[in-house]
């Protein structure tokens, strides 16, 4: 079945469910089923609606069908010396571009390069009537119509079924280095706040509860100059894959992993001892159920 046939089938299925007032469960790689509330309804699989890549490296924009795997997209970009700046968590090899946009999740680079929604340039969707709508395009300064495509980031498919998405890509850094410093969470927050005010090639700041992990990305001269200013011990930059994909040992525990968004500066309350990422803007709580006071502070 080709893309046109798949699209026609999807449109009919959505229209049928809409007329019958039946909810839909949109599934891609099914790697993010834990995220958000429990969804019950007729399953629409986007797993076969993949590929369809439109990528010209000099345009620094890639357009792909929503079911395209992140791993395939990132391998293609890497061969051209480019990458997805928002560093979405993959949660396994089946993670898709549509799933990343639908959940709106960004990785450790977010405070240094921007969030996922900042890089979405356009999207084509199927609305609740089975109609195809297109928002945005493939250029940075697109002033035609509303920025409805940005609303798709984090919408969990409630605004429509994502068909294809255009995202801006960036050059891969020439070199990356990782440093580890023995310091408390409070001291690490103050240190990272100071470092972020300086012209340093920071691209990650994570605290595991005992140690501060920093990542530097950029040109050789800039990274080499920053290392003595930061200090600490050298580490393998590949270790940041575990931080990105939330598989770091510091995030393991019983039950689920709860993401608590807090201002990077200011009091942390009872969350002070928790591991944090994105320069302190995200705290991670591994627990079956968060304590009631967590909701009062979050």
**Oligomeric state of shown chains:** single chain
Cα shape? globular
In percent, how much strand structure appears in the residues?
25-35%
Are there runs of 5+ residues with pLDDT below 50, and where? none
The strand order across the widest sheet is 3-4-8-6-7
Radius of gyration: 20 Å
Ends distance? 47 Å
Overall pLDDT confidence: 87
Following the backbone from N to C, one meets helices and strands in this order, namely HEEEEHEHHEEHEEEHEEHEHEEEH
Structural class: alpha+beta
Largest sheet: 5 strands, antiparallel
Q: What helical percentage do the residues reach?
A: 25-40%
Number of strands: 16
What is the helix tally? Answer: 9
Protein model, in words:
- By secondary structure, the chain is of the alpha+beta class.
- It contains 9 helices and 16 strands.
- The protein has a 5-stranded antiparallel β-sheet. A 4-stranded antiparallel β-sheet has the order 11-12-10-13. Strands 14-16-15 form a 3-stranded antiparallel β-sheet, with no helix packed on it.
- Strand 3 and strand 4 form a beta hairpin.
- The protein is globular.
- The mean pLDDT is 87.
Give a topology summary.
Layout: H1 3-19, E1 24-27, E2 42-45, E3 54-56, E4 61-65, H2 70-79, E5 82-83, H3 97-103, H4 110-113, E6 120-126, E7 132-136, H5 148-151, E8 161-168, E9 170-171, E10 175-182, H6 185-196, E11 202-207, E12 211-218, H7 220-230, E13 233-235, H8 240-244, E14 256-261, E15 276-277, E16 282-287, H9 292-297
Parallel strand pairs: 1-2
Antiparallel strand pairs: 3-4, 4-8, 5-9, 6-7, 6-8, 10-12, 10-13, 11-12, 14-16, 15-16
